[in-house]
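Task: fold both queries, return tokens.
Query 1:
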Amino acid sequence: MLPNKNLVERILHAVCFEALALLICVPALTLLMDQPPLTMGLLTLAISLTATLWNMTYNTLFDRLQKRLGFKRTLWVRVWHTLGFEAGLMAVVLPMAAWWLSITLLEAFAMEVGLLLFFLPYAYVYNLVYDRLREAGWLRRRRMAA
């Protein structure tokens, strides 16, 4: 069992997650959306910051709701939690992307669906690799200390 992450590690985890995602998404979106790299870089950075702030806000509110109502995080609760997060994020990101790129809301929605299809496996693989690297490093430090 690995120890809990402290605040510094949580920040490092989030920053590395977003930085790697930007390195992948900016070139891909530049090609797919036929936009200049700076335009797509600034937009993806804005989306990243928005997603990070929304994640912190949404999960804090969700945790308070769970504490107040006392429900368990079953599969369906997690599904609804995820859908609620994505719906809230889309409510902010779609108008922002449409305005930024001078595209329609439908085109912005298509871009967001593409990003979602990227981020689902990306988040899974990133966290799997991160956890394994973390565990290997922690186990090595623990063996050396013993």
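Query 1 returned. Query 2:
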Amino acid sequence: MFKHIRPALSALILMTLITGVLYPLSVTAVAQLAFAEQANGSLVRDQQGQVRGSALLAQPFEGPEWFHPRPSAASYATVASGASNLAPSNPLLVDQVRERVSEWNGTAQRPVPMELVTTSGSGLDPHLTLAAAKFQAASVAAARGVSEQALNRLIQAQLTMPLVGPAIVNVLALNLALADNPQPDSAE
């Protein structure tokens, strides 16, 4: 009997070492060497060096003086991240979208960008398109008492172009730039 158990135990121990120790250690080593910033969470720090968040995860911002990311079905919690899984035909989704359009004061003449009224697949999307960021510029400018043109320049300064898709703005980076320069008009 031990003749049959010994090879099975040996295979179990060998595979445990390979898949449970060697492979994770090698992947971690490659990640730390080649992609250290991403492997360590893409942390965003303020001017004092304090961690303010991650460039990879959305976080909520309260108040009209800040730019806001896409809505989150999981309240921006990483453990519970995920989509709402509501079908387009679901009346609850329709009600949620209508409520969000109303919150943004959307009208037929001033339609709200879709990404500001629908959740992302993960519920943690940290980026907005240029259109969604510019849509918020007027209300942020009014809340801060600055010109919309100054905020649009700040948005343009934070704009990045991914390999695929439209230009995007990281909401955390944009708000940190706004916090570092609360009166962007004075930089003119």
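Both queries returned. Flag for query 2: The chain has six helices and five strands.
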